[in-house]
Amino acid sequence: MSISMTGRAIGAVTEIIRNNLLNLWQSSILPPPDVTIGRPETSPGAPPIQPPRLNLFLYELKLDPFLRNISLGPARPPPLWIVAKYLLTSFDSHGESDTAEALRYLGEGMRILASLNTIPIENGPLPELEENPELLRLTIEDVGVEQLSHIMQGPDQRYRSSAGFEVRPILIAPSGLPAYSLLVGIDYTKDP
């Protein structure tokens, strides 16, 4: 695949985390939850009783300071090496996030995420991640009350118990051709 597909890698990583949460939930004694992606808010107009839910929220993207100047080859500019920081929030069957039921789901989700030291990609690599030369690493991180309160500002402005984790390094490469000499007679603008 073309290196230009790496621009979609952040969405692909989020989808892989969601799929792994659902697939690895089978080992739990709790019924499987819905797994949503977005701000950790209750759904407006949701029925009073709904299935429990885990929510993934990407709250920060930053450059990986350890790979900032690492290039993919000679005479090529360094790509963007991204660290994605997420929050995992759980909701019980009534849409509340700080009940015993919700906290059971949060703990089970954290257990599954902790088992994903390296993120497996089901059914072979996704096109967006084929060019990523590094393994994707998932690390549980400490997110303090002050940072959570800052992130949770929104329409309902409620503090929700959540767990933080990060995934690194996600490759986003420039799609330009390298600066070194290319072979004469070959059209490099088309995939073979």
Please, could you describe this protein's structure?
- It contains 3 helices and 5 strands.
- The chain has 192 residues and is α+β, with helices and mostly antiparallel strands.
- The chain has a 5-stranded mixed sheet with strand order 1-2-3-5-4.
- The radius of gyration is 20 Å and the shape is elongated.
- The N and C termini lie close together (10 Å).
- The mean pLDDT is 82.
Structural class designation? alpha+beta
> What's the count of strands?
5
* C-alpha end-to-end distance: 10 Å
Q: Please trace the helix and strand order, writing H or E for each element.
A: HEEEHEHE
Spatial ordering of strands, largest sheet: 1-2-3-5-4
Give the number of helices.
3
Q: Average pLDDT, to the nearest integer?
A: 82
What Rg is obtained from the alpha carbons, in whole angstroms? 20 Å
Low-confidence stretches: none
Please state the overall shape, judged from the principal axes of the Cα atoms: elongated
**What's the helical proportion of residues?**
10-25%
Strand content is 15-25%
Biggest β-sheet description: 5 strands, mixed
